[in-house]
Fold each of these.
Amino acid sequence: ILFFICSLALRLTCTCSQLAFPHLCRLNTCHLTSGCCKALSSILSAEHSHLTELSLNYNCLDDSGLGLLCEGLKTKNSKLETLRLSQCKLTSGCCEGLSLALSAAHSHLTELKLSDNNLEDSGVRLLCEGLKNPNCKLETFRLSSCGLTAGCGAPLSLGLSAEHSRLTELVLGNNNLGDSGVKLLYEGLRNKNCKLEKRVLFSVLSDEHSHLTELWLGYNKLEDLGVVLLCEGLRNKSCKLEKLGAFCVHLLCEGLRDKNCKIEKLGLTQCGLTSGCCEDLSSTLSAEQSHLTELYLNNNDLVDLGVHLLSEGLMNKNCKLEKLE
């Protein structure tokens, strides 16, 4: 059916190319296989193609299907900017083709999502070759749950520090990078060429060239020492952090109530919090110097008592909160 639709769209181009090729195509969870990819590739490479976003999440495309798709991506006619391929049964075998697509002279890709695929370190190393290419325009790169270890730290670091790198968002959640992998990544993060603004990994906040404005640290065992080290970076004049998700709410609230604190968004989703932290949070919301406008407390065991305590702060005239989850 999909092949028939794509063929019909191709035949319609001579009379109504704008209608035949929408800008957005979402085919998530459509039981697609590699058999559809040749047709999709022909759409991408068609002379009058207007497709800029393609979502194929949760389909069994496998490496052979993606290889066909990459043939269309590499053509000069492809206008695709966003490609989402979460949980598509991909492995490192598809990464060389994707890397060539990223480094193609006519590439328009700015967002690539490959989460929940078994790419492993060998696959990411191949992808990083494309990242380093001056033709690569990628800005958002999502690699959550891809079976990565510390072995991907060095190639990613080189990709981030490449002179022509445009990456502003890198997502590496649910991978086993460990401390050694993060240390390798840090070398790229502190490079003046690094444009990264949003990271899900701990890095040195006080680096002179840092562009970091958002940091999420949920689901990690930072412990008190980790938060103490984090706060050292937060207090540095070079720190540009605006949004922080972490543990140790009591310690954080002390800093949030300080007149020098400018944090507006605080994410504490699934951090094992109880009603015991809510009085502190409430006093922070009602502090005269508070700048908080967004507070995320999803998936915590606050119960009714915790929310009752929070409400005291919400009712205070000093509270500037606009969004509460």
Amino acid sequence: MLSSTEQAGLALMIFVLMLGMGATLSPKDFALALKRPKGILIGMLSQFGVMPLLAFAISKALGLPDLVAISLIMVGSTPGGTTSNLFTYFSRGDLSLSISMTVASSLASIVMMPLLVGIYVSSLDTAINVPLGKIIATIIIVLIPVCIGMLIRSKSEKKAKTLEKVGSVFGILIIAFLIISFVFREFGLLRETGVMVYLGVALLCFGGFLFGYWVSRFTGLSRKLSRTVSLETGIQNTPLTMAIILSSFPEAVQAQMMVLPLIYALSIVLYSCFLTVFYRSTSVSEIDIA
């Protein structure tokens, strides 16, 4: 389980990241998104249709233990993370679409995440109780900083831009601290974690990337927009998953449940770096047309 210091760091990280995301938003962003809803709709289908189903299928196919399977399903049902916005920028994707998708999935997660977790976990035939009410409460609380960030932007663009930069850097530093400290303290647990858990994480990551990209291409989106949907689908808001685990589940099972989202958080950064390099190399000579 995370120490009290790490739990405080996680709470602070989520607050700062969501505050920074809110500081990037204005009513114009939502208006722009509504003018081209196709990308967002495909992203929502990928996020809440494919990812939870894929997580469930992977957990069944690999025979993952109940607590690990629940964690994987929760990660698959989690909305897109703000990290996707950063990788979208570096991969020459569409940043406005990425931000719009992150916000849309975050808002939809209030209903979709507990609904999907409840449906798929009940199909595992497990006796473990999933506290859906606490999950909903945690998601609502996490979205409050987004509203505060938007309010700050409405008052001052300059302050909002500063807050956005600080939030991104600060969030990356804290998640790096959490991962490093957990790895050092729980190295034995990570070493004992079966290869199937690491395989499950990799399959969910790349499954999201591949589906997001190719379903976008098949439905007529440009390569630039398809890269955006791809990253937004594969990069999940694992800090939110961890916060839900800590606030909703008994302390006795938290350590076992935290391992998978922490592995996902570390893996997704590495996988996204490789994918970003690939996308940048292929975007040099491509011509993006519809």
Amino acid sequence: MAAGMDKVISCFSRRPDAVVRLICFPWAGGGSIHYARWGRLLNSSVEVYSVRLPGRESRAKEPFFQHMQQILDEVISVLLPELKEKPFALFGHSFGAMTSYAFAEYVKKVHNLEPVHVFLSGASAPYSETRLQAPRRSQLSDEEFLQWMTSIGGTPPEILANPEVLKLFLPALKADLGVVENYRCSRPTRPFLSCPVSCFDGKEDMPHDLQAWQAMTSGDFTVQMLSGSHFYLKNPDNEKIILDHITKHLETAEMDYL
């Protein structure tokens, strides 16, 4: 693995013979463990790279990033050889969906590399009106912020009830929301990808403009709504549906490369 890779990427199951890599970007405030587990759940043809951002897990002492470009620069600096070596796909939920989009756009524009599939979850496209009109939450007081987090669901109640844990958790969450609130991009005038894009969302979450994501690709575009609120994907039944979808589509992507 390249220098710096172990710091930035969590990979629980090394699979040198895998045909495709799935690169997963965390939700706001999230670490890398949730997606790194997927490496053990997906079949041996897929290797999972879960991105670990500064300010969490083994990088707890590092300052948070404040701009999307910092995330892109760091992740691409360690992953570029891997991106060139074999096919890759992207997965991101919420803030991670925004990061996946920014990453896909950047590697296409700068390195002319394209994922074989993009899986997006729980977010409006960054250039959609719904997104642009969303209230800015990173500036809320801790108390207001907690009220908002409680209202969207998905944060374990024991975390919300524990001031010490919250003190550790809130700064990362606010920093990531700040990144996304400051991230601006224009709606693509023409698709810059040709790969399939799959969107997922929780039926009880606040409505997102999922259709707007279609502007990024000339390939197949699908939307699947699953039961639950913002963190619907933590539900084991929903997680299985998502992982089955990923497996099915990455296996067909593989066939194109054999």
Amino acid sequence: MTADSAPRFRMTFTAGAEHIDFMGHVNNAVWLQWAQDVATAHWEAVADPAHVDAFLWVVTRHEIDYRGNVTQGAEVTAEARIEKPPVGARFERLIDFFGPDGGKPIVSVRSTWAMIGRDNGRLMRVPADVARPFLA
């Protein structure tokens, strides 16, 4: 599967006064919160409801590349995708944030999420039927 063939999930955010830091643009911690919000919404929108009820996800790693920023009032579109099948309990999700011009991503987040059973809180391998809806 290539990056171009991975199914995309989109979500829009508007930078409010509460998102702006002392430099006048969206704070780094806000980008991370938005990435987590997109990941959760992606899971809830695409996954089988029975899987949402049975499994939880925890972050094991975030990697963020900043190439630009936005100021108060700007709208950004987040685009999430999963390019590779899971490895054991881990799934890697990629999220690009596009500014108002929609050109190149201004912030990119690569996160590794681990699946745990809701009933026992233990890590578990991601079953193929859980991964399937997220992959091309």
